[in-house]
User: Fold this.
Amino acid sequence: MSDEQLSDFFGSFSSFLKSGEFGELSENFLTEESKKINQYLAIYRNGFVKASVEALKNSYPVVVNMLGEDYFMGLARTYAVNNPSSTGTLVGYGEGFSEYLVQNSKLPYISSVARLDKAWLQTLNSVDDQPLTAEDLAEISESGGDIDQLELSLNGSVSVMENDYQIFDLWVQIKSGNDIQSQVEINNQKETLLFWKQGLEVRAKVLSDSELLFIDLLNSGNKLGAIAEQITARFGDEEVSETFSNLLVSGILKR
Assistant:
C-alpha cells in the first residue's frame, strides 16, 4: 500500500471501530474472500466498545456507586455504541453523558452527580499556574506598588459550575469512600461550586455569595480595589477580608 492508501485504510478501520459499519472498509479494502472474516473484525469493534465503557466507568465513579455497577454498565454500553469517541483518545470521553443519564435513569439528580465527577476529572487533567501568594502581595506593597490597582485572574485549573441539585456534600462523602449511615435529603435547589487544583490535589467547594461575586467581578476585568468596594457595599468589611483571604490561600488567583 502507498502512504495514501494506508492512511485511507486506517481511516476506514477507525470508522468501523466507532460505528460498527463496514462501509468504506468493505467497499475499498475487503475482497469477497476476506469479507468472510467479518466475525473476527467484530472482535476489534467489541474491544473498542468495551474500552469506551471502561473509560466511562473510571470517569464517573460516584455515578457508578449510586446506580450500581451492573445497571451503570448497561447504560454505558448503550451510550458507547451510539456515541463513539470523536477524537483519537478516550481521555475525557463522555460528552453529553450527563444528559443521557437524565433520560435513561430514574434518579432525577444523577446528572448533577455526573457533572461533579466530570468536573473533578477535568480539573485533575488541567494545567495549574503559579498562584498569587501573600508573600507576593507583601513584595508588591514593599516595592511601592498599589495593591488596589492589581488586575488579577483565575488560575488555569479553576472552573466554576452551577448544579441543579444540592448534592455536593453527599458526592464528597461517596467520593471519599465514606459509608452513608443515614438517609440524606437531596434538595432540588441550585448550588454553585468551585473546582481547582492545588499542587497535585483536586479541591472543590460550594461558593459563598461573596466569593461568587468576587469571581464574577474578577472575570469582568475589575481591579482589586473596585472588587473590594463592591463586596464591602453588599456584605460588609469583614466579609471582603475573609473572602479575599480564603481565595488567596486556596491558590486560585494569579497575576
About this structure: The chain is about 55% helix and 10% strand. The longest helix spans residues 38-59. The two ends are 54 Å apart (CA to CA). The chain has two domains: 1-107, 124-255.
